[in-house]
């Protein structure tokens, strides 16, 4: 199994991930449960006798490739699409699956109404607020919204009987996500979601932009974000107690250059992107987002 995290590449407007390879990968996690990678996106794919559930088709081209792969596994049509969050690089291509009901956190719809790129689903059929549980064939599906994390609608898909979870854009594999992608992240929300996922004692942690389903990356990143929080929070509290909260805000940029987490110095982008992660964490702590 590869442990590659696909580099983030800018497209015309905003968050659109592309891969360096055209290879696809089908990973069987359990009977009827697969992680299928195409074009730098991995979808959770669940088969049943009455249809197929997928996550994040991503875009039209990738959705067509995913549909082809699914047809090698079953004759059943895709009947449910669960969107991990509202970001446009994840929510395109739903039109390829004409029989599918689209499921997304309730905050998706407001964002989709603002779409000027004509990427987002024409219709969201099912929404939920905090949690949605349902059976899909024999598989129990729990959709959890733990609050804003990467975007407002950040949803973790959890299969409790299979110890499998799917998440998107909450972490990468020993790779610091470039700061440009984190401007609307709530780092406390990300930490909260990672800790919840870790508490589930997963067998497989499927990550939208990675082909590894190992829980190692989840555990390492939970540790990284916890260490980052402790470092930044201690610094902020020291500054507030000695110089006041105004100074804590004013010194965010200075601290982002001065603070270090050498334990992670071998992670890709450590030198260039750690300051952005410190800034994002500082704002999440000081400003709530
Ligand atoms: Zn995202």
UniProtKB/TrEMBL annotation:
Q: Which UniProt keywords apply?
A: Signal
Endpoints of the signal sequence: 1-23
* Record's protein name: MBL fold metallo-hydrolase
Family according to the record: Belongs to the metallo-beta-lactamase superfamily. Class-B beta-lactamase family.
Q: What range(s) does the Metallo-beta-lactamase domain occupy?
A: 39-209
Extract the InterPro entries matched here: Metallo-B-lactamas, NDM-1-like, RibonucZ/Hydroxyglut_hydro
User: Can you name the source organism?
Assistant: Zooshikella harenae
- According to the lineage, what is the superkingdom? Bacteria
Query: Does Signal show up as a keyword for this record?
Result: yes
């Amino acid at each position: 199994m590869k442990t590659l995290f696909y580099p983030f590449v800018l497209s015309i407007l905003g968050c659109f991930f592309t891969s360096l390879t055209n290879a696809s990968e089908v990973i069987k996690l359990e009977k009827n449960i697969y992680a299928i990678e195409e074009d730098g996106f991995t979808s959770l794919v669940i088969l049943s006798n009455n249809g197929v559930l997928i996550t994040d088709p991503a875009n039209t081209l990738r959705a067509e490739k995913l549909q082809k792969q699914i047809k090698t596994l079953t004759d059943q049509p895709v009947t449910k699409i669960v969107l991990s969050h509202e970001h446009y690089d994840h929510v395109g291509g739903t039109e390829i699956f004409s029989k599918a009901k689209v499921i997304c956190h309730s905050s998706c719809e407001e964002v989709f109404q603002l779409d000027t790129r004509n990427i987002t689903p024409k219709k969201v059929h099912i929404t939920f607020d905090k949690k949605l549980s349902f059976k899909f064939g024999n598989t129990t599906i729990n959709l959890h919204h733990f609050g804003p994390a990467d975007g407002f609608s950040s949803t973790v898909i959890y299969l409790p009987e299979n110890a499998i979870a799917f998440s998107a854009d909450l972490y990468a594999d020993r790779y610091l996500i470039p700061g440009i992608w984190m401007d609307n992240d709530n780092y406390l929300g990300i930490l909260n979601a990672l800790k919840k996922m870790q508490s589930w004692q997963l067998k497989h942690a499927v990550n939208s932009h990675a082909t590894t389903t190992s829980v190692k990356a989840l555990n390492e990143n939970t540790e990284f974000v916890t260490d980052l929080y402790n470092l930044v929070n201690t610094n902020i509290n020291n500054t507030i107690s000695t110089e006041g909260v105004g100074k804590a805000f004013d010194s965010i940029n200075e601290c982002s250059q001065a603070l270090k987490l050498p334990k992670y110095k071998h992670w890709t982008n450590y030198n260039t992107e750690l300051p952005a992660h410190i800034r994002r964490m500082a704002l999440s702590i000081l400003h709530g987002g």
